[in-house]
Automatic annotation (TrEMBL):
Organism: Dialister pneumosintes
Keyword Magnesium in annotation: no
Keyword Cytoplasm listed: no
Domain Glutamyl/glutaminyl-tRNA synthetase class Ib catalytic: 2-263
Annotated protein name in UniProt: tRNA glutamyl-Q(34) synthetase GluQRS
């Protein structure tokens, strides 16, 4: 089996060290296993995504030497790797599911959803739903007033499980109503869960490396991948990098973007050495070239990857 992985940044800002942590480990694993890396631009959020950031992230990856095999501009047989150019594919799925009853329109206001679930769901931003619109035939009048979001319908209780490379066996019971998750927002924006699942399946991705914060999203994505009849990838959820106060780096990204590090004189080899040190592959931070890492430091020597967070 040919290994295929993806690095899937959202172009809503400059790449920071947390993004590169994921990109580098994905790169190391893939290059050592002679696989292909797909650079997928996750720009379905048209308001926040900017062309300038796509250009910048390619520059930053190139500066670091983290190359890819398929990406914007060269894609072989898988179609575009830019999600905004794949919207028709996602929308036709939503249409199909809407017609055959696998998805239903939800007219609930944000305020109502917040009222039923002020507590976040499994530490994530997916709110609990009570199925209000699932069984209610909404009146035409209501339909004229507001546009619905669309929810994927969980037909019956189902235990979804997967074995994460670093976190071992994971289980979750998907429940009707509660877990009917949004696949398209009321403003027409396709939901991350749908786009990412469809693309991981359609692009034959075999291994997904990403941050631990997405661990609980995986259950919904597996549900969709199965629905679509795709082979499931292997998942590896990586520990999040946090600062000394335990705050996720992405929240404080200004000072640690790759461009700001480069401008302050830090070299690529400094960065690669740091990443390998945090991963537990070397005992003290030292300058290491990407080429040396690829040839001499096995991905399996990254002993810290079973942690939840890494304080830097
Ligand atoms: N586009 C997502 C992000 O930047 C990545 C999602 C994923 O790897 O599944 O957070
Ligand atoms: Zn509803």
């Amino acid at each position: 089996m040919k290994i295929r992985t993806r690095f899937a940044p959202s172009p809503t800002g400059y790449l920071h060290i947390g993004n590169i942590w994921v990109a580098f480990l994905n790169w190391l694993f893939t290059r050592q296993n002679r696989g292909s890396i797909i650079l997928r631009i996750e720009d379905i959020d048209g308001e926040r995504s900017k062309l300038e950031y796509i250009k910048a992230l390619k520059e930053d990856l190139e500066w670091l030497g983290l190359d890819w095999d398929e990406g914007p501009g060269f894609t072989y047989s898988y179609g575009s790797t830019i999600q905004s150019e794949r919207l028709g594919l996602y929308k036709s799925l939503i249409h199909k599911w809407g017609n055959n009853g696998d998805a239903y329109p939800c007219y609930c206001t944000r305020a109502r959803i917040h009222k039923i679930a002020s507590a976040p769901h499994r530490g994530e931003q997916l709110p609990i739903y009570d199925g209000y619109c699932r069984n209610t035939l909404t009146t035409i009048d209501e339909k004229h007033k507001i546009k619905p979001s669309w929810r994927f319908k969980i037909k019956e209780k189902e235990t979804v499980s997967f074995s994460d490379i670093f976190h071992k066996k994971q289980y979750y019971n998907l429940m009707p109503n509660r877990d009917d998750f949004v696949i398209m927002r009321a403003d027409g924006m396709v939901a991350y869960q749908l786009a990412v699942s469809y693309d991981d399946g359609a692009m034959d991705i075999t291994h997904v490396f990403r941050g631990e914060d997405l661990l609980s999203s995986t259950f919904y994505q597996i549900k969709l991948l199965k629905e679509l009849g795709y082979q499931l990838p292997v998942y590896g959820h990586l520990p999040l990098l946090v600062d000394k106060e335990g705050i996720r780096l992405s929240k404080r990204q200004k000072g640690i973007t790759i461009r700001s590090l480069r401008n302050s004189g830090i070299t690529v080899n400094d960065i690669i050495g740091k990443l390998l040190f945090w991963a537990g592959a070397i005992s003290k931070p030292e300058k290491i070239s990407l080429c040396y890492a690829k040839n001499n430091i096995s991905f399996n020597e990254c002993h810290n990857l079973t942690k939840k967070t890494i304080s830097i």
